[in-house]
Design goal:
The protein has about 230 residues and is α/β, with parallel strands linked by helices. Helices cover about 30% and strands about 25% of the residues. Strands 1-4-5-6-7-9-10-11 form an eight-stranded parallel β-barrel.
């Protein structure tokens, strides 16, 4: 399944490369002439999307969240939301806004916080995002290498894991198959994101992977939802 990606900032859909948020600009997409996130989401559903990945960049950077917009999108298309949730106190509002909430290593402060969240709520409403940058775990707080996070994920066994290569986001340079194969050992369902091309999808499907986060290639028309 192709899962469209929508990044939100100041109430608008935006785009950028490699996680450099200061240089993000209003999204230009084949799905709608404006950068209105709800109208884009509606057009994506009409084009065949079954769910959507939304990154609330304001919330991630501890600014005012875009929850009212996200709730509206979620009524049209089920939202997988990354809003920087990293402890139990932040979970409620995110769960009210979206079908599923993403807990990302970028903002997670400790593995203990992750375990606490998963034990306090329905585990199936959460997706753990393993964020990678330049072949290393990307996190503002966790001091762990990839082997250590792999072991922890095997122990915790979240229902779904996103493997997101931030350094490849917006580049259309393709994925790191060597890295992906390491995570295939986990029992969790795996979703791949970051620089994905049509060729990648064909090759990854041969490895048993079926869910892909796609932003730039989809919005530019180089890759279709179906």
């Amino acid at each position: 399944m192709i899962i469209p990606v929508l990044d939100l900032m100041n109430g608008r859909a935006v785009s950028g490369k490699s996680g450099q948020r200061k240089s993000y600009i209003p999204l230009k997409t084949i799905f709608h002439p404006s950068s209105n996130p709800f109208k884009i989401a509606k057009a994506l559903k009409d084009a065949g999307a079954e769910k959507i990945y939304v990154a609330d960049l304001d919330a991630i950077e501890n600014k005012t969240p875009n929850y009212s917009i996200i709730k509206k999108i979620n009524q049209k298309l089920p939202v997988m939301l990354d809003s920087g949730v990293n402890n139990v106190s932040k979970v409620e509002k995110a769960l009210e806004a979206a079908q599923k909430v993403i807990i990302a290593t970028e903002t997670l402060k400790s593995i203990g916080d992750l375990q606490n969240i998963l034990e306090s709520y329905n585990k199936n409403r959460f997706i753990v995002s393993i964020d990678i940058k330049d072949n290393r775990l990307f996190s503002n707080y966790l001091d762990m290498d990839l082997e250590s996070i792999l072991k922890k994920m095997a122990e915790i066994n979240p229902s779904e894991i996103i493997l997101l290569d931030i350094s490849r986001v917006g580049t259309e340079k393709g994925v790191n198959q060597t890295l992906i194969k390491k995570f295939l050992k986990l029992p969790s369902s795996l979703i791949i994101g970051g620089g994905i091309t049509t060729k990648d999808i064909q090759e990854l499907k041969k490895l048993g992977l079926n869910d892909f986060l796609v932003g730039t290639a989809l919005h530019s028309g180089k890759l279709s939802i179906n």
